[in-house]
Design goal:
The chain is an alpha/beta fold. It has ten helices and 17 strands. The strands form three sheets. A nine-stranded mixed sheet has the order 14-13-12-11-7-10-9-8-17, covered by helices on one side. The chain has a six-stranded parallel sheet with strand order 3-2-1-4-5-6, with helices on both faces. The structure holds nicotinamide-adenine-dinucleotide.
């Protein structure tokens, strides 16, 4: 399977995993030539270019888009028009019109679109999904998800202080895909309405809380940005409360933060006593070696992409939920500008 990659920071990480998983990375692009040195070592034999359009001529089966957060859709549309399967980093789109154009391009194309949302496949999220799918939790009524970074003010400045860089220019609500995608995957629901709140009104950059009404009637509360005390599980913490039981990732140190606490109330059990247990995710192995838990989501997303391209399996996260998750951030930004008023999320379930 011939792969091209655009953007060589996160993209280089994805490209090296593509190679480890047996995909052939034949071409890679970064507009910054300084990024090419490391890429030439990590991706021997790959053609390196500064212009992403060059990749359109490389007879690619698939392309991995890891360029700027708010610029994925135009590239995705161009590759889909060439019949190249797309695996796109988050976000899928920067507004509703662009999201609808992307959906239309996927529907016209002979190729597929997959969202590179590894957070829906982290070990703790998979354990919670398993409990939900097995019916242990009952109907899910409240989901909470955090994507938080415990960083110093200086480190935050260095990361998002430059308004010319995408991290500095995107709205405080935009990077919600790492929380909303797990919420949508767990509930099978769609976002309907969002109200957004800054944690600290005196500092727009710290963190935002989104309160999202879902099509199932459930509520999601997601927190993202910069707050102290982040969990060790790749900045991700998830909790799902059902009508019968709760499953949530453990707020514990190091490896324990990948585990999940499941509690069923006594009234739901034949012996009448509550049951509580901590579940540890089984290790994922690749060629006899254990994959480090923080990389499991990436490995599963790339394996899923390969299965879609080579065997025609459905994308793990196809275009509509990808656009829906991204539009929560867009509606959230509008809510913030309206003093946290609820704002409808465009319904992209059907044409
Ligand atoms: N899923 C995850 O865990 C995860 C982690 C990190 C980043 N990301 C995502 O990956 C994307 C990139 O993030 P990053 O941290 O690598 O950002 P970055 O800004 O550090 O790197 C992006 C690279 O892409 C290059 N680039 C941007 N636009 C380009 C274009 N049109 N043509 C050629 N090269 C271009 C830039 O020169 C830069 O080197 C973002 O969407 C981000 O959200 C995802």
């Amino acid at each position: 399977m011939r792969i091209g990659v655009v953007g060589l920071k996160m993209g280089l990480y994805l490209a090296t995993w593509c190679r480890r998983l047996g995909m052939d990375v034949v071409a890679a692009c970064d507009r910054d030539p300084a990024r090419h040195d490391e890429a030439s070592t990590e991706l021997p034999g790959a053609i390196l270019t500064t212009e992403w359009r060059d990749l359109l001529d490389h007879r690619l089966d698939g392309v991995v888009l890891a360029n700027d957060f708010d610029e994925h859709a135009p590239l995705a549309i161009a590759f889909l028009e060439r019949g190249v399967h797309v695996l796109s980093e988050t976000a899928a789109c920067k507004d509703e019109q662009e999201g609808r154009r992307l959906i239309a391009a996927v529907e016209r194309s002979s190729a597929t679109y997959s969202f590179a949302e590894n957070y829906a496949f982290h070990p703790h999220v998979r354990l919670i999904r398993q409990a939900a799918d097995d019916g242990e939790l009952g109907g899910i009524t409240l989901v909470e998800a955090d994507y938080l970074h415990g960083m110093s003010p200086g480190a935050i400045d260095a990361l998002i202080g430059d308004p010319a860089h995408w991290r500095g220019r995107i709205p405080a609500t935009a990077y919600c895909t790492h929380t909303i995608s797990p919420v949508l995957a767990l509930t099978g629901a769609w976002p309907v309405e969002v109200s957004a709140h800054l944690v600290d009104e005196t500092d727009r950059r710290t963190a935002a809380v989104l309160v999202v009404r879902l099509s199932s009637g459930a509520l999601a509360i997601t927190r993202h940005g910069f707050l102290q005390g982040e969990p060790g599980s790749h900045w991700s913490w998830v909790s799902a409360r059902g009508t019968r039981a709760l499953a949530e990732s453990v707020r514990g140190p190091a490896e324990r933060s990948w585990s999940v606490r499941v509690r069923a109330e006594g009234w739901t059990r034949t012996d009448g006593t509550p049951h509580e247990e901590e579940r540890t995710p089984p290790p994922l192995s690749l060629h006899g070696e254990t994959v480090e838990p923080g990389a499991e989501g990436t490995v599963l997303v790339l394996r899923g992409f390969r299965a879609t391209v080579e065997r025609g399996e459905p994308p793990l996260i196809p275009v509509r939920p990808a656009v829906a998750a991204s539009l929560v951030g867009v509606a959230g930004a509008e809510s913030l500008s309206l003093g946290s008023r609820p704002v409808p999320v465009p319904d992209v379930r059907t044409p």
